[in-house]
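Archive entry. Fields below.
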Amino acid sequence: MSLIKELDYGTPIRVSEQTVTLTIDGQSVSVPLGTSVMAAALHAGTQIPKLCATDSLEPFGSCRLCLVEIEGRRGTPASCTTPAENGMVVHTQNDRLAKLRRGVMELYISDHPLDCLTCAANGDCELQDMAGAVGLREVRYGYGGDNHIHSAKDESNPYFTYDASKCIVCNRCVRACEEVQGTFALTIAGRGFESRVAPGNTDFFGSECVSCGACVQACPTATLTEKTVIDHGQPEHSTVTTCAYCGVGCSFKAEMQGNRVVRMTPYKHGGANAGHSCVKGRFAYGYATHKDRITKPMVRAKITDPWREVSWQEALEHAASEFHRLQAAFGVDSIGGITSSRCTNEEAYLVQKLVRAGFGNNNVDTCARVCHSPTGYGLKVTFGTSAGTQDFASVDQADVIMVIGANPTDAHPVFASRMKRRLRAGAKLIVVDPRHIDLVRSPHIKAQHHLPLRPGTNVAVLNAMAHVIVTEGLVAEDYVRARCDLAEFESWARFAADPRHAPEAVEAQTGVPAAEIRGAARLYATGGNAAIYYGLGVTEHSQGSTTVMAMANLAMATGNIGREGVGINPLRGQNNVQGSCDMGSFPHELPGYRHVSDDATREMFDAVWGSKLRPEPGLRINNMLDEAVEGRFRGIYIQGEDIAQSDPNTHHVIAALEAMECVVVQDLFLNETAKYAHIFLPGSSFLEKDGTFTNAERRINLVRQVMPPMAGLADWETTMALSNALGYRMNYTHPSEIMDEIAALTPTFAGVSFKRLAEVGSVQWPCNDAAPLGTPVMHVDRFVRGTGKFMITEYVATEERTGPRFPLLLTTGRILSQYNVGAQTLRTENIKWHPQDVLEIHPFDAESRGIVEGDLVMLASRSGEIALAAHLSERVQPGVVYTTFHHAKSGTNVITTEFSDWATNCPEYKVTAVQVRPTNRLADWQEQFADNEVALKRIAPRAAAAA
Amino acid sequence: MTAAPGAEGAKLVRMANQIAAFFRSYPEATAQEGIRGHLLSFWTPRMLQDLCEHEADTKVDSLVRRVIVSLRTTAKG
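PREDICTED_STRUCTURE:
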């Protein structure tokens, strides 16, 4: 193994159908129009010295090191800022250029510490490399003049340091913050000799910096350096793998010293991220080796007993015997399983296979139930397939971007950066969100329309937009006629044209000014390529599926499906939520979204699995919990999911778990659900196994093992061992064999194999003979279902209503530094950005309740109450409060209710009627939580366990 | 709001009524077909059976009640 070094062309790779041909150092080279002389030289095999240039950034031309001579032109132009032209004759090396470059390097080095041997960047320093490349042998100016060598370090950021003494003011960090990340947190403060990189008038931690790492990545010296590199030194080998946080699915190089990750650096050739990263993927991987990791299997008879460490064999045999006992006593349907959207495709596939073939029922579900299940339903009904329509790169061609119920800068930051680049380039923006999210107005971005709707009224707003499009003659009639079911369209158009859907008619209901809705609809319909991006603010409602269908209606009516720049794009929450759904994790569907009642499909699986699959759907998670309370559902196998924290109405979830006789939790940590478990099987992190993740754009990326499983088994091996203990044989020697089975059984995955993925990097399903390299954009010539199907989407108000007791609406979400239940990010330095969940409340609502900033307040709903610190904010509108659910001790889901989407039972996390009042104590649930943290997580000392 | 034992039936009724609320915009026959198809696609046989036992419940949507009748007929057939 070796360290993967990516070639840096110095300036961005240009794409053009036209080429230009020039001569560089006597060699002819043809490059796409727009390519710089510097990049053209590298195409010809010549690396021109450079410092301020890197191919992730537009050329800047400040370092003066990349000078070249061009015949017929005066002077020595910078090769980075000079476009290659036909017939150009370029010289990159001669005595004159060498002298000029050495002179430049002398100036740089005269104000740079000469501590190369002890410098953290030793071995990975472009300044050092360039000094060598230009043959610097002396510094005639000496080192005694004014310099910055004693400048103070800024070590405030938990992950990297800013050592101003080593800064050459090349601007790469500032430009990376602007061009790559789009945050504009950095600038060059001062003039002339005083010029220094500055994160505003504060330190890095206190600044607008979002710690994406783009500046660190861009820095050519030791100025911005990862603290892990400072602590441990340079990595010696690296492996390309896939981030295990959000649904963007960024590719990273895990840079290693032996089995230790020294740093994670974004991979330039990553199909989803193209070399960019966020604070989670780039830096927050320390949870994988956190001291809280449980690495021994454990069992206990009762949840009040201490855990007892046992061998894998004992734990697995005990689990199998318990599951057998329960099925013998209470029926074959009395147990089930939950697959994980954090685990690999292969692992999700094995869990659902175990449930269907090993348990002999279809009681399998996944955490997509509580996030994007309405996406699967809504898009399958309207388009014919349960997935987003585009790749991420498609946004580069969008003219109008509508973001609805999503906060990409916090939850999908790497894609948000790409989207912001497009917005800065002129695309128009519509934001539909109750909150004033960052995208509404941030540096160099301002939404043309912000529709701050009342939570729960998405469908009313989208129907009003449809009304405008239909009644103002904005329907793309040719498209509809050619691509869609006309009878369904006409029925929908009559529905949409009804005056009750007019923006003016729904203004009071939605809280959105009619003129804004009309403006947004006109822009969406007439502004060119229009793309919709959405998140859980769409799906986690009682009308989540209806909203997805309403968006699909808009896209079809305006012809915005089937080419680049348009589409319906779900921003998936977890790293493999798309994949876990693809792999047959829902109780009604086999892998590839084929219903269990389909005889031909079932027979195919029966033949390969040696099983007799059941033709009727199984229980969803919420059904399992309900039946557990009823006493009919007795045991569950949960891989990598923490339903006790993440699912709604915590009291109900816990009551259900407590009612079960055998709860098996497979996880990295003793999570909230494990408090109510009887068997704990230690999980493996993404660093400890091979497999694949599928991201929000249907892109299947390889996950590669970089260290051995801490508990001895990867998750797929554990599921296999459990299945074997149950008596249903599984015999795989590597996850690639599991993928081969998936491909053999699933038409949309027919062309997928680990070999193919290793060759091409990634593919987007469908990947088969018709599309051997995958399908970036779907529904190009026809919809998967044939014709696009318009659905009538009547607005039905949620049953969760405000009233005198609960006059406010609570909506929940997540923030940039944290990930879902916090099990991972709270075990990293990211906790410094979010030490506690707080309640955002509008100053008007706070004042009327006598609440000031930082007050402890009691948040109460019909489900329960919790105490949180209040944060006064105008990001929420009056009447709406907002909080996050990252800290288990907050108990946010004690508040949320069991109301759910009509089609999928996705919980209505986004609308809960609440009241807020000042308090001076924690809620009873929170007091109990503190007790349970001790009582339900005890592990018997080894000696006692052995006795 | 923890469900007491026996409360599951009420939940099923609420879920079925929600499904009916979506399909109500369609003509009666289409709506019934949609509700029935949805229930058969996503509900376990036992959930369907439990729902059928609530046929007389006054809280059951009239559309759902008509679907229950057709489900019973199918089961008998």
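CURATOR_NOTE: Chain B has a mean pLDDT of 88.
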